[in-house]
Amino acid sequence: MGTQARVVVLPQEQEPLRVEEINLPDPGPTQVIVKQFASGICHSQLHQMHRPRRGPVILGHESTGVVLKAGSEVSHVKEGDMVLVTWVRRDSANAKERPVRATVEVSDGTATTGEGVFTWADHTLADQQYVVKGDLDLDSMVTARYKIDQIKGRAILEFEA
User: Fold this and answer.
1) Are residues 111 and 103 in contact, defined by beta-carbon separation less than 8 angstroms?
2) Phi, psi dihedrals of residue 107, rounded to the nearest 5°
3) pLDDT tens column, 71-94
4) What is the average per-residue pLDDT within 57-80?
5) Beta strand 31-39 pairing with 82-86
6) Does residue 145 register a pLDDT over 60?
7) Cβ(84)–Cβ(148) below 8 Å
8) What is the helix (H) or strand (E) element at residue 148, kind and residue range?
9) CB 5 within 8 A of CB 24
10) In terms of CATH architecture, what is 3-159?
11) What are the residue boundaries of the structural domains of the chain, listed by start?
12) For residue 155, how far is the Cα from the chain centroid?
């Protein structure tokens, strides 16, 4: 059974962004569903918004949240873990397979992601290679601004309230 999500969709044509309610599929073997607390907005999304697209896109490539569901082969995070979702692969040097790119159905077709992940949503579907476990037991309200430094697949955070 899937997970209901609200996502921000960038249409194929030069039209305003829109919010849609969709059903995320259950995670595949190497994917997780993350309930997001906060998502970053990066200048690169502005570039994506102003260039031609082949179809609708769901933007965003950095967020914090908690794992709701994990695929059968996910080994470094579990349901309930605080995580960061990022466009940077967690451990690309030792990865045996390429990450599975998330795609979802929206009202005007299949939406792709700009960086392999999407975070302009209240829930996201991401390959485990784009998910980094946070070490700290944090109040979700404190995760609005952060910097990520990935060292050996672990996250170090700086927070500003």
Assistant:
1) yes
2) -60, -30
3) 999 999 999 999 989 888 887 788
4) 92
5) unpaired
6) no
7) yes
8) strand 146-151
9) yes
10) Alpha-Beta Complex (3.90)
11) 3-159
12) 15
